[in-house]
Amino acid sequence: MSLRSAADPHYQRPLTRLIDRAAGPLDLPGFEAENGYSSLKKSVREYTPQQIQAIVKDANLRGRGGAGFPAGVKWSLVPMGPDAGEKYLVCNADEMEPGTFKDRLLMEQAPHQLIEAMILVGYAIQATRGYIFLRGEYIVAADRLNKALAEARAAGYVGKNVLGSEWSFELFVHTGAGRYICGEETALINSLEGRRANPRAKPPFPQIAGLWGRPTVVNNVETLMNVPHIVLNGADWFKGLSQGKSKDAGTKMYGCSGRANKTGTWELPIGTTARELLEVHAGGMRDGKKLKAWLPGGASTDFLLPEHLDLAMDFDTIAKAGSRMGTGLIAVVAEDQSMVSAVRNLEEFFARESCGWCTPCRDGLPWSVKILRAFEAGQGQAEDLDVLAKLTKWLGPGKTFCAHAPGAMEPLQSALKYFRHEFEAGLAKPAKAA
After folding, report:
1. Interatomic CA distance for residues 344 and 224, integer angstroms
2. 203 preceded by cis ω (within 30°)?
């Protein structure tokens, strides 16, 4: 089926419109036949880099990696002009957030979409090199991206004098070493330079001094893949994709994991409710169980309750409810699951993935795991509840070098808020008198 027009109803799902999981990804001729690289051609031949930045800013494309920062605003901080020198574009494809797998689908099934997006955004900020920093375990994605990149380079989309212009751009796929902390953009940059993946102090921000000390933009896979469609079809078209469900624009790759009947990921208008995700697309809870709690977007978000299901899944609405939309892939907890065990499992992950750079994170996360194991075994102490509550403050925002530990504290603090009775049930029973 040809999907060459934005008026086509299938184009209301621009990121997944060409995905056929059975047939596999399109090669270059197939992608070009479906309007592939048309946006890049239009941009290089008709628009200045500043005009592209303005279009994306007007479209209100917010970062899809979790933070929700406007992409066009981020790009506008990059020095432009003939004296700006070497600049870099980095795609954050180090998708290691537990419960998140949207970027994997996009890269495996539509690699040319990401390649085109990287080249186009590279042109918009006048970068000279781009890197797709890919999670090392994504072997299929790496193979398909490298094949697509080779096809694009042979066709003249990558390399010297792109499409006959005076602008040149090289692009590489770089597989990481498998560390969660590389999802933090400055730790990713350190790893890309061959250093230990520790976060850097900010400011300076990467847009001013990033990779090898040069101006660098880091964007998520899903964020970047929206850009060619925005440039080709316009900011108003992109805003309309939300169908009035949210003041945010576009579609969102949503998903569901945990004890649901049909786990997966779907491209839907941003602002779709969590109830629709769970009950319509994921087919409801498995085995007829009731929902106890859910994470809105990965392990580093606060738990919400069943009464929050009708909230729009957008950045501001979920924030007002006391959590973060994060990556937008919800994880559900059933009524018969222990919240203490669920949180302990998450904290073990975060403790293992700490880079060890700062003391609160390095020592505080294992401390929380030790206490949670005691509660899980029915050996918790009353004062330990206070310690857990204090840890959520001591490891909170502003107390650590980066956002790793504060993110780890979000599921813990919300579990203590909503399910304190389950922790109290893990208190050690007093010894019986002889």
Report:
1. 34
2. yes
Q: Which CATH number fits domain 339-424: 3.40.1710.10, 3.40.605.10, 1.20.1440.230, 3.40.50.300?
A: 1.20.1440.230
Query: By C-alpha distance, which of 141, 129, 62, 151 is closest to 94?
Result: 141
Q: Tell me, what's the pLDDT at 4?
A: 44
Q: Which 8-state DSSP code applies to residue 296?
A: S
Rounded distance between C-alpha atoms, residue 106 and residue 124, angstroms:
22
Q: Is the CB of residue 86 less than 8 Å from the CB of residue 288?
A: no
What Cα–Cα distance (Å) separates residue 36 from each residue in 5, 51, 155, 157, 388? 12, 21, 13, 11, 52
**DSSP codes of every residue in 227-245:** HHHHHHH-HHHHHHTTTTS
- The set of residues, in sequence order, having a beta carbon less than 8 Å from that of 85 and lying 6+ positions away, is 214, 215
Question: Is cis: bond before 204, omega within 30 of 0?
Answer: yes
Query: Each residue of 174-191: pLDDT tens digit?
Result: 998 878 999 899 999 999
- Rounded CA-CA distance 112/94 in Å is 18
For residue 95, what is the DSSP state?
Answer: -
Express the helix, strand and coil content of the chain in percent, nearest 5 each.
45, 15, 40
Q: In the CATH scheme, what is the code of domain 251-332?
A: 3.10.20.600
pTM above 0.90, yes or no: yes
Quick: pLDDT tens for 214-252.
Answer: 999 999 999 999 999 999 999 999 999 999 999 999 999
Flag whether pLDDT at 1 surpasses 50: no
Any idea how long the chain is?
A: 434
Angstrom distance (rounded) from CA 145 to CA 107: 7
CATH classification (class only), 9-240: alpha beta
Q: What are the extents of the domains in the chain?
A: 9-240, 251-332, 339-424
Q: Region 57-72: what's the mean pLDDT?
A: 90
Q: How confident is the model at residue 82 (pLDDT cuts 50, 70, 90)?
A: confident
Q: Find the helix or strand (DSSP H, E) in which 268 lies.
A: strand 264-269
